[in-house]
Each structure stands twice: as structure tokens, then as C-alpha cells.
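Service request form, structural biology core

Requester: graduate student, group of Dr. S.
Request type: structure prediction, single chain
Budget code: on file
Notes: please return the result as C-alpha cells.

Sequence provided:
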Amino acid sequence: MKIDLANPAWRQTLPPARTIGADAPVAACAFSRDGTTVAFALGDGSVRRLPADIAAAPADAVPPIHGGAVLALVADPAGDGFVSGGDDGRLLRIATDGTATELFNQKGRWIDHLAAHRATGAIAASVGKAAVVVTKDGEVREFGPHQSTVADLDFSKDGSRIGCAHYGGVTVWSIGQVTQGKAAPPPRRFAWRGSHVALRWSTDGKFIATGTQENDIHVWRMAQATDMRMQGYPAKVRSLSWTADARFLYTSSQPVFTAWPFSGKGPEGKPPLQFGEEGAGLLSVVAAHPTAEFVAGGYDSGELQLGDIKAKRSVVLKMADGSALTCLAWSPDGFKLAVGNERGDLLVIDLRR
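Core staff response, request fulfilled:
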């Protein structure tokens, strides 16, 4: 049955779910590329993998694979496993059988943000003031240093460039020319004062958005290098998510779903679209659906909501329990949702009714 927030029968009961306690905070979660497995990055150095099918027997807990907390996790773009980064400076590829292979080791520097590009198979990692890109063939290249620690990064739509957020704005590096053995052009710099703490490249490749230390978001048009600033947030915006068609940008740090419109002339001079039931607290993480007009939002109170931008409504999927939600991830088919929190609860929800 399809997800239908307008249907009272769909809204009356919480959807089926699996919850497992891990006794360590969750930093990130992701579904494998084939959608059969979901993984959670934990503060005890382990990556816990579970079957995406909530009726299947859960896998046993595994020993730590990092020498400290796991800080970042993405689906492996070149396979059906995962890639993790930790505060031990190691970047690991985790195979479908759970074995881990080291891609590189930057001892003494944290790897706390990862990005992956499915078409090219490349992986990017923030390592102190630099960004490191590992190609599908295993070649490692470093970009930087930047003027401060790289706070977030993301690939362009075609995978030829990598955008890095840091103090003073964003730096965009070209990696496609390097891959072809040509001299790389100088990086493009998009300047705006202050610290930029989150970055997402739009799904159509036309915009780069950042959340800043000053409780606002900043967006640049890539073609014209023009920019815009959206203010009025009560807290730092640490989570950004573009819709699949790039028509809207969802942001955290509000009590309801907040979407900035980017179709037509864009959001200049317009208020954001806000909808849904006011949650208990502020949204700490948002994740737009991979194909449809839904969005998941996790609150700093532990509440979880599912929003429908077309119907302008939302429904509670998990009640507040005091432990802030730290990560959300959609399955490739868009019917399952992975959720993690600060207490170490691992939740997989099946939204088919």
C-alpha cells in the first residue's frame, strides 16, 4: 500500500518497526546500494549492520572496527557494502560479509564527514583542513588545505567536482580533469563571512546551500556565482536536504517542516513553505524522500515525523522520548526509514501498510 498521509486509516497507528539498543550514540546511518541492509555508525567504534527486512532475524553485534568513535558512514558507491570514517583517522570499506578493508589512514586527524557518488564510485572524506577523494580504482587524492577545518562536503551532480564548507564560505575543486590526467583548474571560491557547518549540492547541480554558525542558510547559484541569505532560525542549521527534483530545500532547526522553493525565480523575497504539526522541540535532522513528495524529520526531543509537502500535513511516526535524533536514511525504494539517536537506539521503520 502506498504512503498516504491524507488517509485516516494510515494515520491511526504507528507503522511496524524494529528497534535495537546499541548502548552507544549513533553518528550516521545508511542503506546499502541494493537496499537489503542498513548500517549504523556507533560511538564505540563499531558499525552495526541489520537486515532491511524488519521481519528477518537481526544480525549479532560485531566488535569495533575503528580505534575510536565512528563519525561518518555512507553506502559504498562501488558495491553493496558501506564506507566508514572515524576519529582514529581511518577510512574503511565494509564488505557485504562484514569484513573491513582500509582505504587510507590519516592518523591524528578525524574523518567526520563523507560523501559518495554512485555513478563514478568515488568517495570523499573531510580530513582536518583538507578533503580527500578516493576514486573507484583506489587512487587517493588530497584537496586543500582550506583556511579552516572542512565542516562538510558534497559531490556535484555529475561527480566531477567536490564542494567543501569551511570558515569564510565554500571552495569547489574540480576532480574530473585530474581523473583524465589533465592539469586541474584552480578551485572556485564562494565567500561569505562566518563558519559554514553544513553543505548540500542541489540534485540538479544548480545550487550549493550551507548552514552557518549565525543561525541562517546561504545559497549560491553556480552559473552566476550570485548568492542569497535566508535568516530567522532559532539555532544553527546543521541538516539540509534537497528534494529529488530540486524544487525545495528542507532545513532543520524549526519546530515544523520548512522548505525553501527553488523553482521559477527562486526564494528571494518569499517566505519558506512551512507545514505539518508542530513537533516537540526543534528539528535536528531532515531527509527528503528519494523519489516522492515526502520528507522525514527528526527532533531534538526524539520525536519523528513524516511530512507530505503536497498535502501540507505531517504524521508522527515516533513519540518524543528525550533522546535527540541524530540520523535519518531512506531505503532506495523509499518504503523504509532508518533512524538513530544519541542514546544508541537503532530503528528501522517499514512504511508499507
